[in-house]
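I hope you will forgive my troubling you with a question about protein structure. You will find the record immediately after this paragraph.
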Amino acid sequence: YLADGSILGYRQTYLNIRSQGTSRPIISAYKAIRSLVEKQVIHQGERIENVTLGYYGSYDAEIQGLAPVWRIIHDGKQHFVNGFTGAQERPLVTNYFPGK
């Protein structure tokens, strides 16, 4: 919390990260792009500007699930592709955290 340029306090959220189930392979960036081309989201002649693997999820519940997603930026447009299924996800940018 800030007041008159001074820090008065802060709030920290503790997260307990759990892995559930067996690990699944993540599709390649190429397959994610190909998925968008096949769905005619990316058209011939468009420029792919950036492809990044990150996480996508819902933050409305006490237990929050995150799934890997490919963020693909092309000609100034941004799309998300599920890293497991190749399905296009809704663009909720605030729920995207780039991987390292």
Observations:
- Strands lie at 2-3, 6-7, 48-57, 66-74, 77-82, 88-89, 97-98.
- Residues 29-38 form the longest helix (10 residues).
- The helical segments are 29-38.
